[in-house]
Each structure stands twice: as C-alpha cells, then as structure tokens.
Design goal:
By secondary structure, the chain is mostly helical. The chain is built from 8 helices and no strands. It is globular.
Length: about 240
C-alpha cells in the first residue's frame, strides 16, 4: 500500500511539474491524452465493469449507479471545467472562485477514485490491482498538468494546489482502507467511479476529434493504449 501511495503522489507531481520541465508540452498534450483516455476506457471495460457486476447481487441496480456516476462526473466538470481530462484554461480566464471550484471538484473525484485501489475482489488480492493503478496514474498526470497550466501566475500557491491534488487519491485509498463501509456502500462507490471513468475517457475521445476528424495517428495511439491495458490486465 505504501508503494501505491508513493506512485500516486510522485506521478501526479511529475505530471504537474512537467509544465515547466518539458518545453512545448502544452501544445503536444493531445496524443498523450488520447493514449491515457484509451487505456482508461479499456481498463474500465475489461476490468472494472466485469469485476463490478461479478460481485453484485443486483446487476440492474449497479447499472443505475454507474449511470449516476456518469452524470455526477458531468456535474463535477461544470465546476472543474474539464481539467480531469486535460482541458487547459488560461490563468486570466479563471477567477478566484473558479480556482476554488476547480480544485474542490478535482479533490472529490480523486478521493472517490482512490477507493478503487483498496476494495476486495475475486480477481485480485487487496491492494494489487496494478492495471487499475496504472489507469489512474495515466489519467492523473495530464490532469495535474492541466491544473498547473490553469493556475499559472499563482506562484507557489499553484505548487501547493498541486501537492494537495497529489494527496487526494491516496487519502481516498486510506479512508477506504481504514473506515469500515458496508459491502453495499463499497459497491455503490465502485459503480459511481466506474461511471465517472466512462465519462472522462469518452470525453477525451470527443475533444480529441475536432470536427469529427479521425486521423491515423489518433487511431494508432488509441489502439496502443487499449493494447497496453489488455497486456497489463492479463499478464501482471
């Protein structure tokens, strides 16, 4: 569990700090985002959904919570302005209240996704869902980058927000691990995050295809993300 927490924190910090470490990254974020979105979508389909329905005594009810999670993420993105899927805003366009809304929405989403890494499963040992961990990391790194790009001009305060964001998923993991929730409550949270991941991953595809133009690069990068998800899921 300690290693998982360190991976989440370090990768999120690296994602945010890459704004200044890698010149031109802001203009070249599209393909990495497509790769991350493809991986996240694939791992949701081949890991989260089968696992979710296999442990549910009432699949129809679980489907309802997945749907709730999908639209709850849409509601959160009303406040976060889509930073979760790498949508970057200029600092001038974001007010103080807007910054507060963005970081609050990101924290809520990250807390929830952190709970996925500690649940019991018939498919893997507790704390050993490596394919899911990689999916969360690939999703959080561009989100951290977009957060820092949006908060440019805040100086050290932007770094403090990045650190706060990096701690959110580990906090969700720890809370889920030490607070004894009923099996029904865990299932509901699991389903809601599943819906959230479906929304984020599909939104990345939509935003990455302006005017519905599907280039060969996008197709190949998408396939690479999906293939990596399959390899990690079935070989690790």
């Amino acid at each position: 569990m300690i290693l998982t927490i360190l991976i989440l924190i370090v990768c999120t910090l690296l994602g945010g700090l890459s704004l200044n470490l890698i010149p031109g990254m802001k203009q070249n974020l599209r393909l990495p985002l497509i790769f991350a979105g493809s991986y996240l979508f694939a791992i949701t389909i081949i890991h989260i959904i089968p696992e979710l329905f296999s442990i549910s005594p009432n699949p129809s009810k679980v489907g309802l919570y997945v749907l709730i999670g999908f639209f709850m993420q849409q509601f959160l993105e009303y406040f976060s302005s889509g930073v979760e899927h790498g949508h970057v805003h200029t600092n001038k366009a974001v007010s103080v209240s807007g910054r507060f809304s963005i970081i609050t929405a990101l924290m809520v989403h990250s807390l929830l996704e952190g709970t996925l890494l500690t649940h019991d499963s018939p498919f893997h040992e507790k704390h050993e869902s490596y394919s899911l961990l990689l999916g969360i990391v690939l999703h959080k790194m561009p989100a951290a980058f977009a957060l820092m790009a949006t908060m440019q001009g805040l100086g050290k305060r932007a770094l403090y927000l990045l650190i706060l964001f990096s701690l959110a998923s580990p906090a969700g993991l720890l809370l889920s691990d030490f607070i004894l929730l009923s099996s029904d409550a865990v299932l509901i949270v699991f389903a809601i995050v599943c819906g959230s991941f479906l929304h984020i991953s599909t939104t990345i595809f939509v935003e990455a295809s302006p005017e519905h133009h599907f280039g060969l690069n996008k197709i190949l990068i998408s396939l690479m993300g999906a293939v990596l998800a399959i390899l990690v899921e079935f070989m690790i």
